[in-house]
């Protein structure tokens, strides 16, 4: 999107609203049937996030699970009341790649209707759990458009053992032409010929803050593009329950530097200009 002369590029601050026990990496050890009986911490963590964003004067996009919204409708309304965009993360945190076309259509349609009913605003954006739209299921973008979504942020153009579409464009594009759905990939920075993950998540917790800041600034200055940053409410919660049975790799990825995350998010709100996805990419008011 064009910007006024001398104004910094607005980057997109996004939050994937799910609780710690819904993370895909925990699926082998946490039965979906046990979710309703587990301690939910998402509401308190969202309150902390809303306070950080308000203090920094930041408006963000909250990609919210329908399962969470159904149980915490007042939390969803507080997100909307804070001037933030309400978007969909699907209903039950099922990977798009694990669903049939009909199942996916039901999931994204159900979550959109539920969020719109609770939040009282149109839901235009969607992010697939675990960035699970890629080469093998690009039909999902057609389903999203048919359901009334206008953009997706579901492709991460890197190679990863759980997700990724390395050959995808680095910046917003229309996979099916200008009349199709807009896809806004998570941000990568180039170092030589190599793409580096620069858009948040576990990489942001693992890498030094100065490196993440450098990559996002490079995307702004060298590419002239907004960065897309994401994180989860549980990443600000070092006191969360720790289920038994997770592999060493899963534990490392999930728990590394949780205690530093809140401070780093606060730094981000000061070091960059931020806004909602719909305002940056769709030009909404």
From TrEMBL:
<dbReference type="InterPro" id="IPR045235">
    <property type="entry name" value="PuuE_HpPgdA-like"/>
</dbReference>
<dbReference type="Pfam" id="PF01522">
    <property type="entry name" value="Polysacc_deac_1"/>
</dbReference>
<protein>
    <submittedName>
        <fullName>DUF3473 domain-containing protein</fullName>
    </submittedName>
</protein>
<dbReference type="InterPro" id="IPR002509">
    <property type="entry name" value="NODB_dom"/>
</dbReference>
<dbReference type="Pfam" id="PF11959">
    <property type="entry name" value="DUF3473"/>
</dbReference>
<dbReference type="InterPro" id="IPR022560">
    <property type="entry name" value="DUF3473"/>
</dbReference>
<dbReference type="InterPro" id="IPR014344">
    <property type="entry name" value="XrtA_polysacc_deacetyl"/>
</dbReference>
<dbReference type="InterPro" id="IPR011330">
    <property type="entry name" value="Glyco_hydro/deAcase_b/a-brl"/>
</dbReference>
<feature type="domain" description="NodB homology">
    <location>
        <begin position="32"/>
        <end position="285"/>
    </location>
</feature>
């Amino acid at each position: 999107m064009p910007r006024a002369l001398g104004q910094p590029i607005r980057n997109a601050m996004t939050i994937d609203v799910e609780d710690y026990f819904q993370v895909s990496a925990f699926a082998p050890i946490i039965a979906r049937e046990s979710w309703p009986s587990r301690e939910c911490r998402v509401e308190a963590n969202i309150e902390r996030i809303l306070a950080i964003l308000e203090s920094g004067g930041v408006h963000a996009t909250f990609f919210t699970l329908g399962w969470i919204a159904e149980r915490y409708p007042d939390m969803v309304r507080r997100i909307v009341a804070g001037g933030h965009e309400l978007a969909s993360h699907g209903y039950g945190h099922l990977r798009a790649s694990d669903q049939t076309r009909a199942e996916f259509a039901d999931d994204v349609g159900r979550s959109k209707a539920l969020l719109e009913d609770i939040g009282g605003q149109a839901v235009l954006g969607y992010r697939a759990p675990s960035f699970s739209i890629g080469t093998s299921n690009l039909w999902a973008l057609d389903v999203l458009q048919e359901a009334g979504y206008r953009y997706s942020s579901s492709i991460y153009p890197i190679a990863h053992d759980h997700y990724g579409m390395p050959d995808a464009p680095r910046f917003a594009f229309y996979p099916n032409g200008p009349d199709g759905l807009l896809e806004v990939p998570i941000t990568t920075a180039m170092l030589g010929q190599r793409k580096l993950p620069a858009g948040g998540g576990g990489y942001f917790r693992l890498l030094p803050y100065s490196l993440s800041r450098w990559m996002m600034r490079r995307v702004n200055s060298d590419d002239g593009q907004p960065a897309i940053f994401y994180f989860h409410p549980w990443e600000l919660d070092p006191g969360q329950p720790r289920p038994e049975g997770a592999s060493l790799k899963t534990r490392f990825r999930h728990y590394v530097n949780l205690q530093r995350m809140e401070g780093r998010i606060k730094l981000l709100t000061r070091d960059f200009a931020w806004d909602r996805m719909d305002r940056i990419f769709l030009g909404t008011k």
